[in-house]
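User: structure tokens for this one?
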Amino acid sequence: MCLGIPGKIVEVYEKDGLPTAKVDFGAGVLRECCLAYVPEAQVGQYTVVHVGFALNLLDEADAEETLALLREMGNLEEELGAEVGSGQVQP
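Assistant:
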């Protein structure tokens, strides 16, 4: 399964003729992504990024809620161990 992760746009520029952004995913994680699908995106907005492409824009509340759920899922995996996501049923 692939996930789109929300992040905050901190810089917008053009690269190789394409609208591009630096996106902050928190905890010091910055990634470059293509804005071709959301060329109207501006600094300070939140976007969902999947494999290097911003897919849509969303408001801060929705972004924070999604990030909290993703963190919670990560905590669940830590609590249950590596078996989560392995496809194996544990007794």
